[in-house]
Amino acid sequence: MSEFELIAEIRHKSGIADPEGSTILRALPALGFEEISNVSVGKAIRFAVSASNASEAVAKGEELCKRLLANPVLESFKVSVIS
Amino acid sequence: MSEFELIAEIRHKSGIADPEGSTILRALPALGFEEISNVSVGKAIRFAVSASNASEAVAKGEELCKRLLANPVLESFKVSVIS
Q1: CA gap B54, B77 in Å, rounded
Q2: Most buried among A2, A70, A81, B23, by the most CB within 10 A?
Q3: Does the beta-carbon distance from B33 to A64 stay under 8 Å?
């Protein structure tokens, strides 16, 4: 068993309101950031998993997202290995 | 000018309390996830930047993090180009 560091990025599904992203977008012109658009805010959750290989670690991370971290009605997620 | 899609990962600096991460960690044994540890919760903010090249886009993204998205006392950030 080795220890893998994983990151899960959890985002709103397309079509789901993202009030935090809209608020940031509205603040940008006043701060001089006219070249920035399409802001969306999600979560980046890092965790360590002990597993025998990287694909088993990712599978456990995806199971964790499904059962605890993400809301499958509103959110999608992607789990990747960092190290 | 081209359009670059960027992601900013904003995390608590080490030593800063992460109550959301601690709460997730406490819930894991009851759900059968004994092999998961070191949970930390941050933000993943995606946005598009129009810039003449990728490094200029990242520089604008970092400026945005410094001025609006991250709290430099409590949080660190990393901006990367997705496409």
Answers
A1: 18
A2: A70
A3: yes
Q: Is the Cα dihedral A20, B18, B11, B24 positive or negative?
A: negative
Q: Do B35 and A46 touch (CB under 8 A)?
A: no
Which CA distances in Å does B44 have to A9, B23, B65? 7, 19, 11
Residue-by-residue DSSP string for A34-58:
TTEEEEEEEEEEEEEEEESSHHHHH
In chain B, residues with a C-beta closer than 8 Å to the C-beta of A28 are: 64, 68
Q: What confidence tens digit (pLDDT) does each residue in A27-62 have?
A: 999 999 999 999 999 999 999 999 999 999 999 999
ipTM of the complex: 0.92
How many Cβ contacts (< 8 angstroms) between chains A and B? 99
Distances (CA, A) of A37 to A25, A52, B65: 7, 42, 14
B2-81: CATH topology: Mth169; Chain: A , (3.30.1280)
